[in-house]
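DM from R.C. (forwarded with permission)

"hey, sorry to bug you on a friday — could you get me a structure for this? deadline for the figure draft is monday and I only need the backbone to look sensible"
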Amino acid sequence: MKILYITGVAILLSLSTLAVSKGKGNYAMSPEQRVERLAVRLSLDPTQQQRVLQIFSDSQEQRESLQEQMQALKNQTHKKISEVLTLEQRSAFATMGSQRMRN
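My reply, with the result:
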């Protein structure tokens, strides 16, 4: 029974680690959901909830802006690499990119 329990805990930890590594975790929740979760766990009063909501909202806006910048940089980098490659290499490079998107 103890081994079954330990195995179950290990599986849950693995799954939660996988979810976080795939960019999920707390950031998959809306700022409101995140505040709700903290409010319950920390017994936040309404004023604290409002302030934490603002912090989460600001953070989300900044994160989205950074994601857009990172995507633009990635596109620019791929374009520059493509300019260096032969036609055959470009085709293979594009295929590699498609495979990465599926994983």
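R.C.: lifesaver. The chain has a mean pLDDT of 82.
me: no worries. Residues 2-102 form one domain.
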